[in-house]
């Protein structure tokens, strides 16, 4: 058990909530489950996007491994209008929106992640690899059109503790997804 | 009659395509850029841009930097720039407001709301879908 077990649990909780919200936003209302150690995944074409973010004392890396047909079904355009580069691009954007949600949730803990730019891996039987020393958790969703595996790797420095602000705090909460503010 | 032209600046091709499809259907003309550098170049060279929709996290130049560079030029003071991003950090929202952005939407966006907002900000009545 890590010295920062509670913080890793918090980060994973925020990540799972964000995964579910992301999928729901694109029409897939499912429970995100822990990806069992014996789960082997599928062998078709898939895409992996990797996106890292960090702030003082905390580093996270999110990896999405998505079967090709599931990327198609999550894409906002009609399948006939989607090209191969569009699928790659959408895999990156999904991870961007996922980590964006995690960032917004972490703001309520007083932590402002700086988010990098997502990178893409593609091929068959691609296995995601996390950095050494990271706490790694995998989650997955099985849908009719394929599987998505979310991998969260977290590094939390000793001495860092996450505490959520009280709802009554005078600190302004982050804007939530879909929010519109006109100035 | 010249159509109202909206520039969408986003490194995601899918997001650019989706926004373009929605706004073209609503009667707008579109221009696209994949990062702040391209966006700035289009605004500088193509004087008929009537509104900008801009992401934040992009390679080469992010959306806030682009916003600040665009608004530093007096001729762009009245150009409406709407930020469309996954970011919900109020500190960034305040920075954008101070720099002259007209609004902020957190992704994923509601398509009908986006079209309505673009219509409101450009003074144009969007065509019904």
Specify the oligomeric state: heterodimer
Helical stretch tally of chain B: 5
Shape of chain B: globular
What share of residues of chain A is helical?
25-40%
Low-confidence stretches of chain A: none
Helix content range of the residues of chain B, please? Answer: 40-55%
For the termini of chain B, the CA-CA separation is 21 Å
Number of helices of chain A: 3
Structural class based on helices, strands and sheet pairing of chain B: alpha/beta
The total count of strands of chain B amounts to 5
Tell me which protein chains meet in the greatest interface and how many residues each side has.
Answer: A-B, 35 and 33 residues
Largest sheet strand order of chain B:
2-1-3-4-5
Order of helices and strands of chain B: EHEHEHEHEH
Described by the principal axes of the CA atoms, the overall outline of chain A is: globular
Q: Could you walk me through the main structural features you see in this protein, from its secondary elements to its overall organization?
A:
The complex is a heterodimer of chains A (183) and B (129). Chain A is of the alpha+beta class and 183 residues long. Helix content of chain A is 28%, strand content 30%. Chain A has helices at 5-25, 68-74, 84-106, and strands at 33-34, 45-55, 58-67, 114-115, 119-124, 135-143, 146-156, 180-182. Chain A is globular and about 50 Å long. The longest helix of chain B is centred in the N-terminal third of the chain and has 13 residues, at 13-25. With 129 residues, chain B is of the alpha/beta class. In chain B, 42% of the residues lie in helices and 18% in strands. Chain B is globular. The model of chain B has no long low-confidence stretch (mean pLDDT 95). Chains A and B meet through helix 3 and strand 8 of A and helix 1, helix 4, strand 5 and helix 5 of B. Strand 8 of chain A pairs antiparallel with strand 5 (103-106) of chain B, so a sheet runs across the interface.
């Amino acid at each position: 058990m890590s010295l920062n077990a509670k913080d890793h649990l918090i980060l994973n909780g925020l990540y799972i909530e964000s995964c579910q919200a992301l999928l729901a936003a694109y029409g897939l209302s499912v429970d995100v489950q822990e990806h069992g150690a014996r789960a082997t995944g599928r062998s078709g074409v898939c895409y992996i996007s990797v996106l890292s973010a960090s702030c003082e004392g905390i580093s996270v890396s999110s990896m999405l491994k998505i079967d090709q047909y599931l990327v198609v079904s999550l894409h906002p355009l009609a399948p006939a209008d989607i090209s191969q580069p569009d699928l790659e691009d959408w895999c990156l954007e999904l991870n961007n929106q996922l980590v964006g949600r995690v960032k917004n949730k972490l703001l309520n803990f007083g932590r402002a992640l700086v988010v990098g730019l997502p990178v893409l891996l593609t091929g068959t039987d691609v296995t995601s690899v996390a950095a050494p020393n990271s706490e790694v958790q995998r989650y997955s969703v099985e849908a009719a059109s394929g599987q998505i595996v979310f991998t969260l790797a977290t590094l939390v420095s000793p001495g860092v503790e996450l505490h959520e602000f009280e709802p009554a705090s005078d600190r302004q909460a982050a804007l939530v997804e879909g929010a519109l503010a006109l100035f | 009659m010249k159509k109202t032209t909206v520039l969408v600046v986003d490194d995601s091709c899918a997001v650019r395509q989706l926004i373009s499809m929605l706004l073209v259907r609503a009667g707008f003309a579109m221009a696209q850029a994949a990062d702040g550098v391209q966006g700035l170049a289009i605004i500088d060279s193509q004087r008929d841009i009537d509104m900008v929709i801009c992401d934040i996290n992009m390679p080469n130049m992010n959306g806030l930097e682009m916003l600040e560079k665009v608004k530093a030029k007096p001729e762009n003071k009245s150009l409406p720039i709407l930020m469309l991003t996954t970011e919900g950090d109020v500190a960034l929202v305040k920075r954008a407001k101070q720099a002259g952005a007209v609004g902020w939407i957190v992704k994923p966006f509601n398509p009908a709301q986006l079209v309505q907002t673009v219509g409101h900000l450009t003074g144009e009545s969007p065509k019904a879908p």
